[in-house]
Design goal:
Number of strands of chain A: 12
CATH class of the largest domain in chain A: Alpha Beta
CATH superfamily of the largest domain in chain A: Response regulator
Number of helices of chain A: 13
Strand content of chain A: 5-15%
Radius of gyration of chain A: 26 Å
CATH topology of the largest domain in chain A: Rossmann fold
Helix content of chain A: 40-55%
Largest sheet of chain A: 6 strands, parallel
Oligomer: homodimer
Structural class of chain A: alpha/beta
Strand order of the largest sheet of chain A: 2-1-3-4-5-11
Chain lengths: 347, 347
DNA sequence: CTGAAAGCGCTTACAG
DNA sequence: CTGAAAGCGCTTACAG
């Protein structure tokens, strides 16, 4: 009923606890005979080391924590999957917490994880978060912290990101290259770095191409639960307020799909009347009609890389080496589909 | 740098470790003065109990494990969210593992969790799983185990389910009530109980209404990554093989949306030519055109209830009470939308 | 009201 | 090759 302990094995075998411990871990200074004996009994008794005791001795939990704003989200669930798959390979278990984009919750959750003595933390910060003390505290405790996707530039830790500005630039450039002259942008909330960067990339592409930047063409979305609705609403507003718009770069696919739905309902032709580029390459983007041109944001890969970096730092800390924060930038791709025109070959 | 311990507080204050421990936990037999003194110092030193030591003593980790077939999945990510939200309230942290529908992985993961000494386990079993020893082992160790959604009927543990058979019956009945005479079914894989039950509900509705059951109208989908594609492929096959079909009950929304996409492409009118009912009420179901009539499967609620049940059993075990397995059935609803006809009032 | 004692189950450095 | 000793940091029953 109660789990087997080293003591039980030692007593039934008439040897000492340390010897049992060492035999099980194949220490070279234990006789083959003893090892065989111990291992056999351990197996029959289904011995499993008590992880609490092991943790207490080794000061490691072989567990990491991850905090994300939202679990029910295509991008983040892919990131989680990437993290878990990689962590499992290295013998780490993963505790998941969801901040709901709330700074207070995020702070509390960081504390929960620290209390649990996780070995390291992976985080994509909440939109609300503007104060980073809870995060620098983690680093000050010499506990590895890696940020991904939604990062805070000021915090000195490793980060797994994409070049949002560049990707947005490419997306907007594609609209320009395919003939759009008046391009709107449905952006994300004001605070998070990636929605700022996507906006800046959009703006720069316009200016570099000699198109004027018009702030009234920029619509804000919260990109939460209601993304699809926001897409529809903004599409309707845009149609009313700016009849001359012929292209939109949209912060996230879900919003873009909402917009497409609304446009189709109103018989606006895509891409002929309005071309659309989304962001993230959610699988529905290739499924809808017309399929959506978008920027592929590699969630699974981001998760994998985030864990790999954390793992490196975990090992560094163990060897009492200093952690040198690394910024890892993953590539994105423009996926051309039906929601934008094909580039006309110019002579 | 290193975390504060009880010893440090005791030594700087010149009192014993047990007194510090008791002061911090507000034991009645410690003087107010001592308590105040201890608490203040604990606060300034940012004392946090070492969870490893606490676990070792109390034999509790305040951590539970959850195993699901797939994280990147609307239903499951909602369940996870429900579990986590509830667990956090009760001071439990959640470790998540993904079985990829693989029996071997699932077995390994159960062991991982047992090795970690989680207090309890929540699981939705893999399609492949037909042997349940790894699960009964958990129960035999007196460790609470609660199944949800994809369950094994033989295993004696609590289960959070919906009445798949009834829901499927209602879905099919709705097709019949709205005038469908020849109804196909796109079912899930052969093994999992819920896909069996949905199939049986479909079949029973046909028979109860005097319609003949025709096995050739039942198509199998794996319902994995390729659900959308499977929907398209099966829709195309159906059109070729059974031109007379006027209604389909589909195992899961994603497949249904694939089917709708294919039908629209081929100018099949929905619901006039073919009516469709899905299953799960994925949010895209209300977004697509035509919007999808479907069965609402309350993922978040299932997660919440699953944790609540586990929590009850956790407490029971602590009090050395016997766990009485409970089957909790949550209600589903038929959500009528555009992919089925409105019921004609008969006189 | 306070503290000495025992112990949770393991690991590691050291003695023999 | 084996084992006695110390200790990780806490908690709880008990003595005073």
């Amino acid at each position: 009923m109660t789990p087997t302990t080293l003591r039980q094995i030692a007593e039934t075998l008439g040897i000492s606890i340390p010897t049992v411990s060492k035999a099980l871990k194949d220490y070279p200074d234990v006789s083959k005979k003893t090892k065989a004996m111990v291992k056999e009994l351990a197996k029959t008794l289904n011995y499993k080391p008590n992880s609490f005791a092991v943790n207490l001795r080794t000061k490691e939990s072989k567990t990491i924590g991850i905090i994300i704003p939202e679990i029910v989200h295509h991008f983040f669930s892919n990131v989680i999957k990437g993290i878990i798959s990689q962590a499992e390979k290295k013998g780490y278990l993963v505790i998941i917490l969801q901040s709901n984009e709330s700074y207070e919750l995020e702070k509390k959750q960081i504390n929960l994880l620290i209390d649990k003595r996780v070995d390291g933390i992976l985080i994509s910060i909440a939109n609300e978060t503007a104060d980073f003390k809870h995060l620098t505290d983690v680093i000050d405790q010499n506990k590895p912290l890696v940020m991904f996707d939604k990062i805070a530039k000021i915090v000195k830790c490793s980060k797994i990101i994409i070049d949002d500005r560049k990707a947005a630039y490419i997306a907007t450039q594609h609209l320009i290259d395919t003939g759009c002259k008046r391009i709107a942008h449905f952006r994300g909330p004001l605070l998070p770095q990636n929605s700022i960067d996507r906006f800046l990339g959009y703006k720069k592409a316009l200016i570099d191409n000699g198109l004027s930047y018009d702030p009234s063409l920029v619509y804000i979305c919260q990109c939460g639960d209601k993304s699809f609705e926001e897409g529809k609403i903004n599409a309707a507003r845009l149609l009313k307020e700016h009849k001359d718009v012929d292209g939109i770069f949209i912060n996230t696919d879900m919003v873009a799909i909402g917009a497409i739905t609304e446009f189709r309902k109103r018989k606006v032709k895509i891409p002929e009347d309005i071309s659309i580029v989304g962001f993230s390459n959610w699988f529905m983007s290739s499924a809808i009609t017309p399929s959506l041109t978008t920027i592929d944001q590699p969630g699974f890969k981001i998760g994998k890389r985030a864990f790999k970096q954390l793992y490196k730092e975990l090992k560094a800390v163990k060897k009492e080496k200093i952690i040198i924060p690394k910024i890892i930038e993953l590539k994105t791709n423009l996926i051309k589909r039906e929601s934008t025109k094909t580039i006309s070959l110019k002579t």
